[in-house]
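Database export, one record per block. Field names are fixed; values are copied verbatim from the stored entry.
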Amino acid sequence: MKLSELLAGHDHETLRGDPGTEITAGTCFDAHRVSPGSLFIAVPGHREGGPESIGPALARGAVAVLVDGGAPDLSASVWADTDVCVVRVRDTRRTAAVVAARYHGEPGRAMDMVAVTGTNGKTSVSYMVESVLRLAEGVSVGVIGTAGSRIGDELIPMPRSVLTTPEAPDFQYLLGRMRDREVATVVLEATSMGLLHHRVDQAHIDVGIFTNLTQDHLDDHGTMENYRDAKLRLFQGLCERAVVNADDPVGAGIGVLMPGAVTTYALDTEADYRATDLTMDAFGTRFTLHHEGRKYPAAIPVPGRFSVANALATVAACHLLGHDLLGLIGALDRMPPVPGRFERFETPGGTSVIVDYAHSPDSLEKGLTTIRDFARGRIITVFGCGGDRDITKRARMGEIAGTHSDLSVLTSDNPRDEDPGTIMDQITPGLAATGGAFERIADRREAIGFALERAGREDIVLIAGKGSEPYQIVGERLIPFSDMATVRELAL
């Protein structure tokens, strides 16, 4: 497709070359992923690209370049001996969404599109949407999120650098792959940074889901207000209809942004979809679902109020898309466990182990209070905090673990470029203030082993923070490590 066709109707200025240049190898932010015939989009500040990477991109065969309106003028030597077309646009990220979608034929228009945003629950709701549609009606579903991108059980290979919400060129490529495989519905996790950076613009989202807003990602956004505003971008022109948690103050306000297009769900307030009469044990939760004056008995194979809220969001969104309500409710109880989300294992000695992604104060507290509701023995919590992330939550997470656990085992999460000992030092005051028993064991495998050795029959060990991640991030290295695999190995 010609560059001029990709940019038609979008403000731009041709600086040199022929805008009729054919783009034959897609669009790209990362210079090292450019191939002959690519359009290189020089996004300022992008880790793998940016204006300083134009030279390497041209060397790899880029035939055209988009530069940002705010970028400094580049030396003519960059273009020497080339006939590359260079176009300046006001905002390369916004433009990237337009040209990538057009290059792949606007694939979002061909499928039902569901986007999930919020601090907690994005991955769980994504898995639930996929499961109930597949179980109830045999629908082919594509998933884009924390665990990668896949169609059913088939993972779509992508570079490790690809994010939970991929950059626009990768995102539109994935949608194109899914459309070509005749996927009927796509469900994606829309992160705050993904929304802020326009990665899902031009996705033609049918239903946007808002789960909740609690403290997280302040390292990226600075304030909770900025974090909230990034999440709310989904409901300011990016989706046609919304499904929102009316129990959350931010969710309750989304109706102002989308008058007449909001469907609500809740446990504690009146809503279009509501759950009452919750009863739970270690294996799941039963409840009554209320909708349009009728009551439906329902169950999910996951314990916890937060899991019921996720189930309500799932049913509401799928029902909005036109799927049968009774079939959706019936499928809830048959859902497989979500990897790393309250995933349960029982040791030969009768200890229950729960592996959960809880890595924020709110998610850790909800997980522990849920466990306390059905625990018959002690609760032992293994947890840490990620490096190069919001440090203000560390002491608070220590306080939560110490308050709700009989024994806390403080360990390393993904330290990244920080010293694990320093991170633990910042968590320890919160733990110590509770007076609860705790140990510090930096090696995560040793910490898990310590917890299992001290747990008895009917005790519960919660391993929080990493969920289904198959690695530990230490510096720039991804070291293979799975919490659940480690538990199975040590317990058997």
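Remark 1: The chain has a mean pLDDT of 94.
Remark 2: Residues 259 and 356 are 36 Å apart (CA to CA).
End of record.
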